Every structure is written in structure tokens, then in C-alpha cells.
Amino acid sequence: NAGVTQTPKFQVLKTGQSMTLQCAQDMNHNSMYWYRQDPGMGLRLIYYSASEGTTDKGEVPNGYNVSRLNKREFSLRLESAAPSQTSVYFCATNRQGANEKLFFGSGTQLSVL
Amino acid sequence: GENVEQHPSTLSVQEGDSAVIKCTYSDSASNYFPWYKQELGKRPQLIIDIRSNVGEKKDQRIAVTLNKTAKHFSLHITETQPEDSAVYFCAASTFGNEKLTFGTGTRLTIIP
């Protein structure tokens, strides 16, 4: 029972390159989220998926796209990476909605040069 | 949208003393207020939460208080121990809303 699994753990990109961050959960949760964490700015919501087949923008969606592939998997794509996207990215899940405990993945440290 | 402010940004206390972290929120409709702890290099983990129909909640050495009129809530840690050293985040959301808004975090250091 792995919980929430994120890959990769570390990634270095050059400006303009693309990449996809993967998140998978085996908790049978409906809601999945992508956050970014920057020093002094807390955790900011990029995109979320309330259920399979639906996605919505969060606080900072520009420069990102997401796919809820099925109930288990929620991926985050950077089409053309920029230095401003250097951050730690966390996937999180819960049973349903923002009023319940979030379970976080271990994070992806991304550097864009 | 919701705005959550958190103070202080850093806090150092002697081992055994108490620590208090305060947060204010802007949306009077918010009704769920969790606190997450993030140890260095680790993922955030929920340590306690409170809903708007409750004024205070305790779990061993940690407690959270909520003042809906003033729109602020606080985390209290008593008898602090070295393992309490971490970054603590408050957050707020509204029932039925998928968006949980986090504060900017407090780095708590326990001095042995």
C-alpha cells in the first residue's frame, strides 16, 4: 500500500524543455491536487481534479496543463519550462473536497536553468 | 478568493516552553482550518484540524483555537520537544469548495 507516489524525485530542465510529473494513488480517493512550494510563499494550488474526468484551475495555473488519466493517476505537464517554474511540486489526494485531510506525495524538486 | 496570513514566519523557543502560531483569514464563509507540519525534506502532514462549529480542539500537546468573529485561528504547542522543529502551515477552506488556501508557513526551531 504505497499511498501517493510521485515521479521523478528530482529533475533539471533547460528553459523551453517540456516534462511531465506523474502522480499515482492507491487510496481510492476521488480528489487529486497539484501544489507548488516556494520559499516564503507556502503551498499554492496549481490545478485540481475533483473526480475522474474533471480538472479545474487553482491559484497559479499559467504555464501548466494536467490530465486525470483515470481515478488513480493525475499528471502535471510543463510544455515550455521557464526559470520561474523552479520549485518543489507536491501531488496530494483526499477522499473528496478541500474540507478533508490531504495526503501528500514525497515531492519533485524541479530546477529550470 | 480566500487569503490566509500567518505569523510569525520564524519562531525559536526553548525546549519545554510553549509555542503559538497565528493565522487570519479573509473569507467569512470559511469553515475548515487544518494545520500541517513539514519536517525538513519531507512531505507536509496533517497534525490537527478544526471546523467552524468548534472553538477549540486538543490532541495531547497541540491545540487549535478558532475565533470566527475576528477571523483568526491559532496553533498552540506546549512542552515543546526537539522533534517539534519543523515548518508549520495553516490553511482554510469552505465546505463544498475544492480549494484549500495555505498560509506562508512558520519555521519553528526548538532550542535544546
The average pLDDT value of chain B, as a whole number, equals 95
Radius of gyration of chain B: 13 Å
* Main sheet specs of chain B: 6 strands, mixed
Which of globular, elongated, flat, extended, rod-shaped describes the shape of chain B? globular
Measured on Cα atoms, how large is the radius of gyration of chain A?
13 Å
Give the oligomeric state of the chains in this entry, treating copies of one chain as homo and distinct chains as hetero: heterodimer
Helix and strand run of chain B: EEEEEEEEEEE
Assign a percent range to the helix content of chain B: under 10%
SS class of chain A? mainly beta
Features:
heterodimer, A: 113 residues, mainly beta, seven-stranded mixed β-sheet, four-stranded antiparallel β-sheet, globular, B: 112 residues, five-stranded antiparallel β-sheet, 11 strands, 54% strand
Task: Describe this protein's structure.
The complex is a heterodimer of chains A (113) and B (112). By secondary structure, chain A is an all-beta fold. In chain A, 0% of the residues lie in helices and 51% in strands. In chain A, strands 2, 4, 5, 6, 9, 10 and 11 form a 7-stranded mixed β-sheet that branches. In chain A, strands 1-3-8-7 form a 4-stranded antiparallel β-sheet, with no helix packed on it. Chain A is globular and about 35 Å long. The mean pLDDT of chain A is 95. Chain B is built from no helices and 11 strands. Classes of the chains: A mainly beta (113), B mainly beta (112). The interface between A and B is medium-sized, with 22 and 28 residues.
